[in-house]
User: What shape does this take?
Amino acid sequence: MREIVLFSDSTCDLNEQLIKEADIKIVPLYVGFNEEIYKDGEEINPEGLYNKVEELGFLPKTSAASMVDFYEAFKPYIEDGKDIIYLGIGSKFSTTFNNALLAAREFDEGRVTIIDSENLSTS
Assistant: This one.
């Protein structure tokens, strides 16, 4: 049996300690203020997000992680002989789920399992 790598996305809102202890890989969604686009959790954290909202006076737009984002995140682990389980934002809330599914189809069947959490966040 191959080693399994767990993936989620930045909407999971898991605490940093759990992410590190369980070695969960996070694929970021995107947060945009007009022309400024940030990778959620990588280029902007919750505090930075709140500060930006207060500074600009409006809420940001969000965008899904793309199929390419998932493909590029999964590929090194697949090439290393590992299997992947992705559990993230539910399909009813974002196209992120479908993009993960599309990326999974680029690999041999059974190597990437995509689970629909049917949830928005763990919080």
User: Anything to note?
Assistant: Residues 13 and 45 are 11 Å apart (CA to CA). Helices lie at 16-21, 46-56, 67-79, 96-104.
